[in-house]
Amino acid sequence: MALTTRRRALTTLGAALAGAVVLPGAQAWADGRHRGRRPLWRAHAHNDYEHTHPLFDALGHRFGSVEADIFLVGDQLLIGHTEDDLDPSRTLESLYLDPLAALVKANQGAVYRGWRRPLQLLIDIKTEGSSTYLELDRHLRRYPHLFTTYAHGRVVPGAVTNVVSGDRAARTPMAAQTVRRAFYDGRLTDLGTPAPASFAPLISDNWTLNFTWLGEGDFPAAERQKLRGIIQQAHAAGQQVRFWATPDTAGPARDALWSELLAAGVDYFNTDDLAGLEAFLDAHQAS
């Protein structure tokens, strides 16, 4: 696979804390200006790596979940949306794992100091799922105390919970493990199946494949009932719900749809607009 350098590599938080050049997002964390504000656990940064400062921009807006797309190239896990985006300096380690490890160390065991709830790292596999997951697992093992872990039937919480999405072939090697540092991103078809929350704690699906309403006019009663039924079924099984492909252009339609998701109890709001979702959740006093 040809690699093209389209973006410069970012300085990790570890270097920032050591006194190197500090990016604006990392500077806010180093200065502690975020402290005392409740994290927005339901806020999910879709394609987080496309922001100016991956990870840190989302954390600066208090997000509880960030998304990183990975491609397996040799034994490296490169970050990007397409193959043309890939840069050998932009790896899962450099943009996410190393900064998170340094941050958790600095914050005494948590991403958000004083808040023990894990940050969700949604890792979207863009290359063949089985081989990519096995390499991902090897990379995650280098951070033995950072992640929520499944071990012999028991879930042990950590500062970061990895959820693997993307290519469905990752499911087979994950299901075969008795110890793993990641969990599976299920689909609506997984609701009501034997897959437990200890394997698939998150249920994600495409909004437009399941609902016709995009925020204009009234939400059809049958669709509102369907949405609430999905949420209730997932929550009864201990699972959380996220929809992607929801409207993300600022305006009344997005606000209307987000309001229905909030009323139904959806667990993660999917957005590229960090400031917009932060303002919405703050206005509705929803974390």
Poorly predicted runs: 1-24
Secondary-structure-based class equals alpha/beta
Alpha carbon gyration radius: 18 Å
The description of the largest β-sheet is: 9 strands, mixed
Shape: globular
Number of strands: 12
Mean pLDDT: 91
Number of domains: 2
Helix content: 25-40%
Approximate strand percentage: 15-25%
Give the helix tally: 10
State the end-to-end distance: 41 Å
The run of helices and strands is: HHEHEEHEHEEEHEEEHHEHEH
Which structural traits does this protein have?
alpha/beta, three-stranded antiparallel β-sheet, 12 strands, globular, 287 residues, nine-stranded mixed β-sheet, 10 helices
Offer a concise description of the structure.
The chain has helices at 13-17, 24-31, 56-60, 92-106, 129-140, 171-176, 207-210, 221-236, 252-264, 274-283, and strands at residues 40-45, 63-73, 76-79, 119-125, 149-151, 154-156, 160-166, 179-180, 183-186, 202-206, 240-244, 269-271.
Give an account of the 3D structure.
The protein is an alpha/beta fold and about 290 residues long. The protein folds into two domains: about 1-5 and about 25-185, no CATH class; about 185-265 and about 275-280, no CATH class. It has helices at about 15, 25-30, 55-60, 90-105, 130-140, 170-175, 205-210, 220-235, 250-265, 275-285, and strands at about 40-45, 65-75, 75-80, 120-125, 150, 155, 160-165, 180, 185, 200-205, 240-245, 270. The strands form two sheets. Strands 1, 2, 3, 4, 7, 9, 10, 11 and 12 form a nine-stranded mixed β-sheet that branches. A hairpin with a 2-residue loop joins strand 5 (about 150) and strand 6 (about 155). It is globular, with a radius of gyration of 18 Å. The relative contact order is 0.13.
